[in-house]
Predict the structure of N-acetyltransferase domain-containing protein.
Amino acid sequence: MSTTADTSHANTVQIRSATAADAGPVFELLKQLGTEYAPDRAAYDASFAHAVDDQATTLMLVAEQPGTGVVGYAFATIAHLLHTNGSSAQLQELVVDGTVQSSGIGTRLVEAVEAVCLERGVRQLTVPSRGSADFFERIGYRSTADFLKRVFD
């Protein structure tokens, strides 16, 4: 963030818990995630409702910019793990609109997720990241594992 223009977006953004009214804007951001899954609106609607309503096992935050609307979101899951002596969170999705990327909004979202995790007594936050490891390492994360997956059709 080397210029005033770069930081102005992050300074005007409000980070808050997602509500049901954010479903549409977050769906549009989801399309920018670039995964192998094409977003299906019906499946998304059910998952989004769960993410907003179940605060015991999920954390859904949005970044809202005045006059523009929702320009980013973070979605994390929380589980009780045996080896962490308590809860562990995993940042599943982090998306910032392409028009405001590299302006500090992603960092603000991650910091907000961390703050909520600390408030909830979460012991660790992990991030499975293939394409953005440099971003997370820059803000203090370190690589500790490889994630492998199997997709069930």
About this structure: Residues 1-7 have pLDDT under 50 and may be disordered.
